[in-house]
Amino acid sequence: MSERIKVIVDGKEVMLEKDANLLSELRKAGYDVPGLCYYEKVSHTGSCRLCVFRRKGSAKLETSCTVAVCENMDIELFTADIEEHRKNLLQLILASHKHDCMTCEKSGACELEALAYRYGLDLDSEIFPSIVDKTLKKDKSSPVLCYDPQKCIACYRCVKACDEIQEKHIIDMDGRSFHTVVSAGYNEWGGSDCDGCGECLQACPVGAITSKTAAGKGRHWELGSVITTCEYCGVGCQLKIYTKGDEIIKVEGVDAPANRGRLCVKGRFGHDYIRSPERITKPLIKENGAFREASWDEALDLAAKKFMDIKEKNGANALGGLASARCTNEENYIFQKFIRSVFGTNNVDHCARLCHASTVAGLAITFGSGAMTNTNTGFEDSDCIFIIGSNTTETHPVISTFVKNAVRKGAVLIVADPRRIDLARRAKVHLQQRNGSDVALVNGLMHIIYKENLHNKEFIEAHTEGFKEFAEVIEKYTPEKVSKLTGISEEKLYFAARAYAKAKNASIIFSMGITQHTTGVDNVMSLANLAMIAGQIGRHATGVNPLRGQNNVQGACDMGALPNVYSGYQKVVDAPVKEKFEKAWNAKMDDKVGLTVVEMMNAAGEGKLKGLYIMGENPMVSDPNLHHVEESLKKLELLVVQDIFLTETAKLAHIVLPVTATLEKDGTFTNTERRVQVIRKVLEPLDGTRNDWEIVADLAGRMGYKMGYGNVWDILKEINALTPIYGGMTPERVPSGLHWPCPNAEHPGTPFLHKDGNFSKGKGTFKPIEFKEPAELPDGKYPYTLSTGRILCHYHTGTMSRKVDALNAYVKEGYVEISASDAAKLGIQNGAKVKVASRRGEIIITAKITDRVVPGSVFIPFHFVETAANRLTNDALDPIAKIPEFKVAACNIEKV
Amino acid sequence: MNTSDKKARIVLENAGRIDPLSIKEYMNSGGYEALKKALSMQSSAVVDEVKRSGLRGRGGAGFPTGLKWSFTAPLQGQKYILCNADEGEPGTFKDRLVMEGDPHKLIEGMIIAGYAIGASEGFIYIRGEYYASIEKIEKAIAAAEAEGLLCEKVLGKEFAFKLSVRKGAGAYVCGEETALIESMEGKRGNPRVKPPFPGVSGLWGRPTVVNNVETLANIPYIIKNGADAFRKIGTEKSPGTKVFLLSGKVKEPKAIEAPMGTTLRQLIYDLGGGLAGGIKFKCALVGGAAGAFLGEDMLDVPMDYDNLLAKGAVLGSGVVMVLSEKEEVMPVLKNLMEFFVHESCGQCAPCRTGNKMILDLLGRIEAGKIAAEKGFEMILKAASTMKETSLCALGQSPILPISSALKYYSRELTIK
């Protein structure tokens, strides 16, 4: 605990924290010390000088923002002469600042305005004439930001926010003296590498950096605000969303444990889709191949009747449901309850199958718990971070900032990725493995660790099992052999192995680059092996950390939207578990594991699955081998889809139900670090839409099963009662953001799993794993390796992000990344259209020549339906997790 | 105290007398003997000797050099000695005389300083436009390396020292030691917040001593002849000599090394030959751009740190810019303010805005748009807040020339 010491301020004693920042401490103690440049999250600048004080007996003034609290401090803070200097300083700053307060976006929240008012500055008296340089022009070239140098007070907050928080180093001060202005790129924001995260915008104390998307939409005092959880990725950033009437005006990051106030471009500027005219507000029924509007009663009665008919005629297992990683915990819980008790089948799954099914399976086998072991911000304290198969900067932007912060503090970053992703340039070593050679790579690292005697013998002995058999396998993966299999030099392998094993605290981060393979479970188990052999697990800032892709994919899994488990990973084949749920839900349960997403598609294609209920998923873009998905969905007797838009999947449905969007409802999400966070209604739901859980409950009632919940919190209470890991996540406690497992109302939550080597399953299990090639390798006809993935400014199937102008201004359409040498060989120019074909389909797409991919490999982001990468991907599955191999397919490229 | 010895030369002892690029000639006139002597002493004894000499920083602030060294000497690990040769003060040209006229003296001073504080590496940060200085220093460094004076074992002793030149890029503020360090680190040349002082955390976060060229050029003399000999020159609290820089309406504009405590009258009339054309003396800007305008009543004040300070003036870099009755102070003031406006780094609010404000107000006064009395009241208000609150010395500078010029300006107004 920090020590509090006595400080005398203007003759009065106060207790302040020793060695802490004096300004910050004074403010906490209630002294309203003025200041414009001090920003608690970045290093001090001491530029505005307003926070000056004087030590008793000293002649000179010092800035309290640059000084630490120390013993024997006796200071003058608000004497007449110091206040006079502050007034003069403010007048000078005002003289250098354009006063368009009447139309300024910042008015009402401007820190300079507030100080001018507080000090009663009279602009009429011409204390100081204006020295604003009227020749300085606004920079409006960014898609989301506007910079007005005439209003800039050169406080450095934005520059430091970009440098020290987000570590993007986009902006700096340009010019000097009264021409000191913020500059991005070559004096043009739009031409710089700025990705629009808006950390600078949030840091600006005046109206120099403003949001283009908020311009003219409302004065600060007219806006209401709600704090909620971001509906995009799994980081779980907390947002403060400002609204006026029925419109979202602007978003600020909230200083919460998951994101510490940081956001990315989607979180800050990506919510306009919510009032897109494409939102559906009436239930739709398809008749003769065309949709007609219908009443809720008609649509739900029809759905109920048809589902019951199928169940009666073909049995419960002819029905299935896809839950959604985009919906709340409560909705996913209700949905799987519906499928299990009303349909009477375990055919329930969701898109986690397509992202982290291999993680859930692989980590359950080795550790006993299939989730991220540690926390988002914990990476900041790691000494070594090994990132494999995660383009963190683009897929989990805010988590990447904590990684970058760690690197700045001296952590060794090792990046293994076939592409030269952003973090590769910050890495000490970039292991550019051949696509799909991950098991060989990780076995190779463990071989070196073992041979060099760097393995953690005590940990292995005390906390694991199966090491002997496992060691026999890694013995075979010599650096020479692994170098040949992966294409990585032996020298780099040695460096990475030693750095990881020797680090005090080392973290592994992985994502789809590991999981989306036919060897996905093998890949994940290899990483578990790696953490165990080095003993890098069970402590803060260590562990094996699968970054979950969607806002609530962790929660959807936790809630049992999976064919083999009820909520909290309680197995459907477990008789006592089944009994517990049958009793609680008052219905008969199937005791057999149900079908997964891809298996349901196959069963539909074969005519075995006849009725499918989809809540907020879009397999027509997200799933592999789309041609096959389309054929299968078209064969269904009944497809019911509920969504906010008429998605590619909804278009194939017989009945479409319009629902409220995330920002229109209450509930909880569980982010990637197992932290349960609240979402709150920001806007009123569109007329005609209903909450997912209400629709499910209504449909259940029409099918003869009563679900009597008054609101989402009633559902959460049922979750608490039936789900041990969520036992203590009560409606009263969820606002504090606890990590599961949290078994009871007194439990503080569990920031990191497997504490001190005590694995969820007892002992950790080493699994000996041999390297296997991907299902499809390049050959004469399809000579290129295709990989797919996400990009920063779009999201999943694009249904939301592609309806946001600000995001489209960054990237509007799909493209294929191709190396310069391949492009030259094929005669392809940058920006030219090319045909990419695989055994399953072909697309016409724009070529982007880049050194991010190696010759022989290409990459296509999968968000764009017109150039859907999943027309090409291989639906070959991992034998255990049933995850498709999105990351490796053979393809051919032709100039068109 | 010996102020009568007008021939006292320490810093410019060899300048103009030997071939600056001949290390042999430098050695023949006693060069590098101080280094030999220093290396035979304990490094702490070298620090003590400099401390005892009373040498004060010649960059302008007059901080005791030995004391500065003694903060850094006991610290562990990599340390650096930097020479501040970013000479950019208007009217100042003393450091280049050393670098161009006697580069080995500076190099010898630096090696001794490096030994004293335990630095294994030194850098000379030279103003980028000083092409001749850069060339001569670089050649002299090569010659010193060839003689085994800059190597893993300097003069065969267990002391490694290397030295190289860094060039400035044209910012006056980089003469401020922490801005100089930022610039050396490849960053924008903004002064740092102090503390920490460079002596504790300087270049690349390591303990670093930054000394001016003239300061370091005094070191060989002090070590060779001893602190006592040094203290015989100059005044009690400001021992040694100072290179004064006569310019403006003086008959013989020049740099002249004279004992500390020499009076303004001696400098202008005895050493500078009086005013050009025999016109009446009005005042002199003493100390540089941040100095004060001193009139007839100040002609007999001994020119050293403390005597000038006692009169509200500063010794600064030793500039004496003479104005005759024919010159007005307003154009000089405006020129000074244009200089400060141009050279402010823009980091702290008072300097970023205040200099421009003062310049604009001077223009308004001159153009008759605002009454002089009211205008100067506003100017002094700005300048005094700048003095009290600016982050570095640059923003603290305008108050002195402005306030000291006022009486001459009001006199000029009444004459008009």
Quick overview:
The complex is a heterodimer of chains A (896) and B (416). With 896 residues, chain A is of the alpha/beta class.
Explain what this protein looks like in three dimensions.
The complex is a heterodimer of chains A (896) and B (416). Chain A is of the alpha/beta class. Chain A is 28% helix and 19% strand. Chain A has 27 helices and 38 strands. Chain A has a seven-stranded mixed β-sheet, with helices on both faces. Chain A has a six-stranded mixed β-barrel with strand order 31-35-32-34-33-38. Chain A has a five-stranded mixed β-sheet with strand order 2-1-5-3-4, covered by helices on one side. The radius of gyration of chain A is 29 Å and the shape is globular. The mean pLDDT of chain A is 95. Chain B has 416 residues and is an alpha/beta fold. Chain B is built from 16 helices and nine strands. In chain B, the strands form two sheets. A five-stranded mixed β-sheet of chain B has the order 6-5-9-7-8. A four-stranded parallel β-sheet of chain B has the order 3-2-1-4, with helices on both faces. In chain B, strand 5 and strand 6 form a beta hairpin. In chain B, helix 3 packs antiparallel against helix 4, helix 3 packs across helix 9 and helix 5 crosses helix 6. Chain B is globular and about 70 Å long. Chain B starts with 22 loop residues before the first helix and ends with a helix. The N terminus of chain B is likely disordered. The interface between A and B is medium-sized, with 36 and 31 residues.
- State the end-to-end distance of chain A: 67 Å
As laid out across the biggest beta sheet of chain A, the strand order is: 14-13-27-26-25-15-16
Query: What is the beta-strand fraction of chain B?
Result: 5-15%
Net shape of chain B: globular
Give the low-pLDDT segments of chain B.
Answer: 1-6
* Arithmetic mean of pLDDT of chain A: 95
Work out the helicity level of chain B: 40-55%
Low-confidence runs of chain A: none
Spatial strand arrangement across the major sheet of chain B: 6-5-9-7-8
The radius of gyration computed from the alpha-carbon positions of chain B, rounded to a whole number of angstroms, is 21 Å
Structural class of chain B: alpha/beta
Order of helices and strands of chain B: HHHHEHHEHEHEHEEHEEHEHHHHH
How many strands, which pairing sense, and closed or not: the largest β-sheet of chain B?
5 strands, mixed
Report the C-alpha radius of gyration of chain A, rounded. Answer: 29 Å
- Termini separation of chain B: 45 Å
Residue-averaged pLDDT of chain B: 94
Our estimate of the beta-strand percent of chain A is 15-25%
Estimated structural class of chain A: alpha/beta
Q: Number of DSSP helices of chain A? A: 27
